[in-house]
Amino acid sequence: MNWKSLRRLNLGGNNLSGNIPPSMALLSNLTSLHLHENNLSGDISSSSLQYCRSLSILNVRQNSFSGNIPKWMPQSTRIVQLRSNKFIGNIPSQICQMPLLIVLDLAYNRISGHIPKCLNNITAFVDMHYSTSWIFYTFFDGGAFFIYRDNLILLVKGQLLNFQSILKLIRMVDLSSNNLTGTMSPQLFSLSQLHFLNLSHNRLTGTIPKEIGNMTQLESLDLSKNELTGEIPESMSSLSFLSNLNLSFNNLRGQIPSGTQLQRFSELSYIGNADLCGPPLPKNCSNHGDDTKTLGENDDDGDESDFLSCLYMGLGVGFAVGFWGVCGAIFFSRKCRHAYFRFLYDLRDRFYVLLLTNLNSFH
After folding, report:
1. Which of 178, 278, 296, 333 pairs as cysteine with 111 (C-beta 3.0–4.6 A)?
2. Calpha distance 169→103 (Å, rounded)
């Protein structure tokens, strides 16, 4: 409480327990706070941190904090990493009032409600030239001048990576493994500068909006294990930087857009969608036309199939009637039977004469 000039505090990776002490409210210049990987608890939404109005980085991942997501975070906040705690309630709309925010990591909590539609108000997510400067700390030690830059460990593409020099360039939203419901709004997919988006392991419904094609910088997209329906939009084929994709275990249907980079992902990116077909899945869309066609097309196919069935049946019946009609006339009418055998004898004689004529021509 006496270190009023303290700007960065890192107590991560220890065995600390208990609540955040009230004395931290006096650290008016605190800019970066790392309390990750401890056993700290309490309601952070009402903690003394709300008086740290200069706070820009809040990293409390992997603790036992509970209560609601704090609403007091200042507008200058750049990183909010609250993953792997016991937070409940909704995502507050106040988060949308942080124009400098570049990392929003709320994964592995008990958050419910809908994803805020106002995330596109976060300027750093939509403007590539915004929030590219970074926080650094300068100090002297033994007559030498040092510059220290903050760092952060993020889970991206299934890997834990330590970002430091390029951290200021990262744009990330991870809301996975919560109890979020509702649909994904088109506004969510207008975050054109986002690199990593993870909404997996929730209970999201509805379709994937076609506006997803606006996320031109997206490198990783994980929407797995939700309750999404509809087809994969064609606009996803324009995501040229996409190197990690997971749409598995939803209720998606139809053909995976063909002739695009979406075929280069393994079938693990799409499994668990019973009505999805086309490469890289082994299910062939041509054998499951009902999955990829509209109701009107299905009706036309049904009419064509009924027509062909009737045609084949008519030909079969006509052949049978004709065959047995000729046989009946031969076996039950003496006149027809004599005419039939005379025709066969005459045909035999003609063939015999033709054969002898051809043989004599060789001599």
Report:
1. 178
2. 10
Tokens, residue 189: 């997919």
Whether residue 140 is contained in a domain is answered as yes
CATH number of the CATH domain containing 204: 3.80.10.10
Question: Do 210 and 349 fall into the same domain?
Answer: no
Q: Say yes or no: 64 and 171 in one domain.
A: yes
Question: Which residue in 11, 3, 46 sits closest to 28, CA to CA?
Answer: 3
Predicted structure pTM score:
0.77
Q: Which pLDDT score is estimated for 244? A: 95
CA 20, 21, 25, 27 torsion-angle sign: negative
Q: pLDDT tens for residues 197-241?
A: 999 999 999 999 999 999 999 999 999 999 999 999 999 998 999
What is the C-alpha to C-alpha distance for residues 3 and 212, in angstroms, rounded to an integer? 47
For the chain, the first-to-last Cα distance in angstroms comes to 128
As to burial, measured by CB atoms within 10 angstroms (0-12 exposed, 13-18 middle, 19+ buried), residue 2 is: exposed
Q: In one letter, which amino acid is 151? A: N
Residue keyed to tokens 């997206």 = 218
Structure tokens at 217: 């910088």
| C-alpha distances out from residue 195 to 1, 36, 37, Å | 38, 23, 25
For residues 140 and 143, what is the distance between their CA atoms, to the nearest angstrom?
6
Which residue stretches of the chain are H helix?
Answer: 289-292, 295-332, 334-362
The total of structural domains in the chain comes to 2
d(CA 187, CA 120): 6
The pLDDT of residue 148 is 78
Angle between helices 334-362 and 295-332 (to 10 degrees): 90
Check residue 327 and give its pLDDT: 59
pLDDT tens string 16-27: 999 999 999 899
Is residue 188 domain-shared with residue 89, that is, in the same domain?
A: yes
Query: What is the radius of gyration, based on Cα positions, of the chain?
Result: 36
The residues of the chain scoring below 50 in pLDDT are 288-299
Question: Which letter, b or e, does each residue of 158-187 get, where b requires 16 or more Cβ atoms within 10 Å of its Cβ?
Answer: eeeeebeeebbebbbbbbbbbebeebbbeb
